[in-house]
Amino acid sequence: YGFQVMAQALGGTVGRTGTREYGHTDAEVASESCLFAGIPAEQVVWMSHGDKLSKIPKGFVNVASSKNCPQAAIADSKNNIYGVQFHPEVKHSPFGKKILNNFLFKICRLKKDWTMKSYIKDEIIRIKKQVGNSKVLCALSGGVDSSVAAIMLYRAIGKKLVCVYVDHGLQKLGETERVKKVFGPKFGKNLIIVDAKKIFLKKL
Predict the structure, then answer these.
(1) Integer Cα distance of 181 and 193 in angstroms
(2) Strand pairing of 73-76 and 61-66?
(3) What pLDDT sits at residue 63?
(4) Residue ranges of the alpha helices (H) in the chain?
(5) C-alpha distance from residue 86 to each of 5, 12, 45, 61, 82 (Å)
(6) Structural contact between residues 140 and 182, judged by C-beta atoms closer than 8 angstroms
(7) Tens digit of pLDDT for each residue in 1-13?
(8) Per-residue pLDDT tens over the stretch 102-128
(9) Within a 13 Å sphere around the CA of 11, how many CA atoms are in the beta-carbon half?
(10) What's CA 103's distance to the chain center, in Å?
């Protein structure tokens, strides 16, 4: 919804469509726009909205549309501001990656010099600086996000990290055992597993 917020903040108007678009939607894009360079003028995109821009902000032009959404993408090339109503980040928008690629490298002019190795190194330095001599309490769910955060923290501050995993009884089968097996040998007593199944299930 950054598209609508951005447009409204810059003087545009957001209104209801009357007809909700959800799922695969045929759209027409302006191939001459940097955002849509190298992709077909007619394509399928993934929509999920019940509103539209009834008035675009001053300085913008419309660069994409669908049956129920006349302003499906807008552009202010002078100030390098772009917005899309649909979801280019999902696989259901076949040319979505190309759109994101155009935005990153044609519009923002980023360089392809980022690597995961440099990210890990930079983050460890940043974490050490931010934490200093303090301890860190990390809520560990066993999911990807908290697991990566926990490992990064551990690499940066070691035993100053304390992880708490709450077994609320609603995890995937074997999740608690997996967390013990994966993190137990590394974190030792600094991995606290709380059996809260009775409390959570009773409340539910």
Answers:
(1) 12
(2) antiparallel
(3) 94
(4) 2-9, 96-101, 116-131, 144-157, 175-187, 197-203
(5) 14, 18, 7, 17, 13
(6) no
(7) 788 899 999 999 8
(8) 999 999 999 988 788 888 999 999 999
(9) 4
(10) 16
Instruction: List pLDDT tens digits, range 67-104.
Output: 878 888 999 999 999 999 899 999 999 999 999 999 99
β-strands 13-29, 42-55: how paired?
antiparallel
According to DSSP, the β-strands at 191-195 and 161-167 are parallel
Q: How would you label 74-93 residue by residue, b for 16+ Cβ within 10 Å and e otherwise?
A: bbbeeeebbbbbbebeeeeb
197 contacts 169 by C-beta, under 8 angstroms? yes
In this prediction the pTM is 0.60
Helix (H) / strand (E) element for 37: namely: none
CB 39 within 8 A of CB 31: yes
Pairing relationship of beta strands 136-139 and 161-167 according to DSSP bridges: parallel
* pLDDT tier, 133 (very low <50, low <70, confident <90, very high otherwise): very high
Q: Using CA atoms, how far apart are residues 105 and 52, in angstroms rounded to an integer?
A: 28
